[in-house]
Amino acid sequence: MPRIPEQFNIAEWFVERPAQAHPARVAIASEPAPFTYAALRELAARAGGALAAAGCARGDRVLIALPDSAEFIAAFFGAARIGALAVPVNPFSRSADFSYYLSDSSPALAIVHAGILPEFLQAHWRPERTIVAGAGAEARGRGPMRTWDEWVGEAAGESPPAPTSFTDPAFFLYTSGSTGGPKAAVHRHGDMLATFETFARGVLGASEQDRTLSVSKLFFAYGLGNGMYFPLGAGATTILNPDKPRPDKVLELVAKHRPTLFFTVPTFYAALLREAEQGAAADFSSVRVAVSAGEALPVEIFEQFKRRFGLEILDAIGSTEMLHMFISSVPGRIRPGSCGFPLPGYEAAIVDEGGRIVPQGQTGNLWVRGPSAFSEYWGKPEKTQAARAGEWVVTGDKFYCDPDGYYFYCGRSDDMMKVAGMWVAPGEVENALLAHPAVAEAAAVGREVDGLTRLVGVVVLRHGAAAGPALEDELRQFVRARLTAYKAPQQIVFAAELPKTATGKIQRFRLRQTIAGEEASRG
Asked: Residue 2 and residue 21: Cα distance in Å, rounded?
């Protein structure tokens, strides 16, 4: 990775630099018309000027609750441009979530979309510090709020980016909250360049010929790289979808825009396969690399996608705390079930509860360190301390490494189950269930019964499959034939869908709560 200069501003590197090199190239493939690099540069500069005119200063936070759009990107880099900190949050949140984000980050200004304004205003935020995008006349009559178009239209956009250091804070990213309340990881200006060079350049070989499509949204770490600063850094084109991701819509975008780099999470790859099986037109022939992250990619999903589309999905692992990937498979060296090797500049260690390296092949706790590690959880020193061990970030993930150096994800520490005195990783059970032709999605959780853990498999069936006692028994025997007996579910629960975070991760803690509640009600 090239050395990052002491004076470094992400707005200059990811927006100004490519706009100067190729102003007429399409930066964003959006509706109703594409956005060129020159147009994006002007919009980001005007957003920065408008923020400064509104009194935002270096170090102030700017909350961004927008769908994936040119306005999101301009607001993000507009904040960075003046040395303020962008705070993107899920625009599909509820009012209680918005209240939490506003209280936690204490922003100087909030930029929200008109479609979520009724929900947002229930958070009792100050209207005079609210900018409404995607709005015209409907934002008028709501007191002192201003529309995005008039706000940026009046702003000057000629001031150069602030002379920030690569170690200065640049943005917050909230953790997904898959096992608890969200925390704001603080990232620096230099962190983006580190992940761009190591993963986008080093693994994907991203270039100006690429078109990226990220199902995962810009408001969290995985999508922010895939859909924003990876394509901009490479001078490529990003394909943005402002709506909630649906398999049919994503397949339409693939057909229309022909992406070369495609990113999503394992559960969405499973959903795309179901859509194709039910007759939807699905053509991934333009895609040269398909990437999966968020959770371990089940071997069965890997194999099914390869058989249907001829693509080997590249599995990787990253985190909000590390900004993007730190362990990744690489094209030509993919081993199904493994997420690959530590990226150059990153180190991984698998340790026991005392922080001692475990023997090769033994499951332990994953620690990682590298150039994109977060500096702190905003306003939470105790949680920051718990997530750090010196320079190491304590990921909360269970891993093992095989003799060839491949790393294998076993699950979150909170999701591991001890059955008959033996540890069971949910992913192993889930992958066995997914191999059954009737199963579309699967999750494995533990249920406490009389002080013992009972293994429960929760499955979503494929179209046409019928739930019932016969299939439940068949699935238990199916897993028993593939895994050691204690890893076979003692109970199968059929579900219409699995609870997931906004980032697509299965919320196993919610499944445990639901199962426990149902058992108690039957009492």
From this structure: 20
Q: Is the pLDDT of residue 439 over 80?
A: yes
Contact indicator for 113, 92 with CB cutoff of 8 Å? no
> DSSP character for 239?
E
Domain end point (choices 128, 154, 188): 188
Of 392, 251, 225, 389, the closest CA to residue 318 belongs to 225
State residue 452 phi and psi, 5-degree precision. -115, 150
State which amino acid sits at residue 197: E
DSSP letters for 39-71: HHHHHHHHHHHHHHHTT--TT-EEEEE--SSHH
In Å, what is the CA distance from 206 to each residue of 61, 200, 202, 234? 31, 5, 8, 6
> Does some domain include residue 43?
yes
Check residue 410 and give its pLDDT. Answer: 86
Q: What is the pTM of this model?
A: 0.87
At which residue do the structure tokens 């999101």 appear?
A: 72
Query: Pick the residue with more confidence: 94 or 501?
Result: 94
Peptide bond into 32 cis (omega under 30): yes
Domain, as residue range, for 43? 10-24+34-188
